[in-house]
Design brief:
By secondary structure, the protein is an alpha/beta fold. It has one domain (8-254): Rossmann fold. Helix content is 47%, strand content 15%. The protein has helices spanning 17-28, 40-52, 67-81, 104-129, 152-175, 192-199, 204-213, 223-234, and strands at 8-12, 32-37, 56-61, 86-89, 134-139, 179-186, 245-248. Helix 4 links the parallel strand 4 and strand 5 (134-139). Helix 1 (17-28) crosses helix 8 and helix 3 packs parallel to helix 4 (104-129). The chain binds NADP nicotinamide-adenine-dinucleotide phosphate. The site of NADP nicotinamide-adenine-dinucleotide phosphate has 28 residues, from helix 1 and helix 6.
Length: 255
């Protein structure tokens, strides 16, 4: 028996990085995966690769900041794959900026994509899962646990995801819905998000070296390191785990 055999999973931001690794791993472990993203070409390619390797997946165009997209995609996924068992709120962005140089527009865009989307998605998923249970995994960050100077808006959004996860987890448990909600806190992972954010800085190479030095293990993480944690929280192996925060950070926050 595979670890999420027969379950239906929706992964946002599934076209790249941590989302892509999660889609592939959930599919390998027996889930039918709805790969959702704004990047149509890359998302379709992920779904196709999964199908070609014997898994079950389908791509859906989905901007997580739009409530109407959530409503449409949830309906389509239910009709195509069946009722949702697993939601991974993974899509996110980083706009580099300190408290002094971040603009209000950057702040709002960050909160919209990183935090408001998690609220909308969680609310939609609860409505669908409350009669049969499920697992919601919200991707926060080490930046939701400790501060980072050049990512002020990002830190706020990820701290918000952490506490929203706990509030909604307790609510669902008390209501007896059988829905578990947990957050995952990756350290720095080599994905397009990190590479793109670093490339906006004049001293990108020095920043990367500095980031590596903050991880006691001496290197950055890989997308699969995070996907394995998500798989655990998505599966029934974690049936007693809710409102918790799974830190996967090479020791970043242990100092
Ligand atoms: P990534 O490589 O940039 O992949 C994110 C995917 O989400 C991309 O395909 C991106 O599309 C998509 N996306 C962006 N805005 C979207 C929207 N409005 N609706 C739907 N999809 C959207 O990012 P990642 O590094 O895998 O990060 C995944 C999650 O992990 C994020 O929540 C991030 O904050 C978190 N995280 C990452 C790290 C890290 O070091 N990488 C560390 C801690 C936490 P486009 O490329 O077209 O924008």
């Amino acid at each position: 028996m595979k670890r999420v055999e027969g379950k239906v999973a929706l992964v946002t931001g599934g076209a790249m990085g941590i989302g892509e690794a999660t889609c592939c791993l959930l599919a390998r472990e027996g889930a039918q995966v709805a790969v959702t993203d704004i990047n149509v070409a890359a998302g379709e390619e992920v779904a196709q690769r999964i199908v070609e390797s014997g898994g079950k997946a389908r791509f859906y165009h989905h901007d997580v900041a739009k409530q109407e997209d959530w409503q449409r995609v949830m309906k389509e996924v239910t009709s195509d794959l069946g009722p949702l068992d697993i939601l991974v709120n993974n899509a996110g962005i980083v706009i580099v900026g300190t408290v002094e140089d971040a603009t209000l527009a950057d702040w709002r865009k960050t909160q919209e994509i990183n935090m408001e989307s998690v609220f909308i998605g969680t609310q939609e998923a609860i409505a669908m899962m409350k009669d049969r249970g499920g697992s919601i995994v919200n991707i926060s960050s080490v930046m939701g646990l400790v501060g980072g100077t050049i990512e002020a808006a990002y830190c706020a959004s990820k701290g918000g995801v952490r506490m929203f996860t706990k509030a909604s987890a307790i609510h669902c448990a008390e209501q007896g819905y059988g829905i578990r909600i947990n957050s995952v806190h990756p350290g720095y992972i080599m994905t397009p998000l990190l590479v793109n954010a670093a490339s906006t800085l004049p001293n990108a190479e020095d920043i990367l070296k500095e980031l590596i030095s903050r991880h006691p293990v001496g290197h950055l993480g890989e997308a699969d390191d995070i996907a394995y944690g998500i798989l655990y929280l998505a599966s029934d192996e974690s049936k007693f785990v809710t409102g918790s925060e799974l830190v996967i950070d090479g020791g970043y926050t242990a100092r």
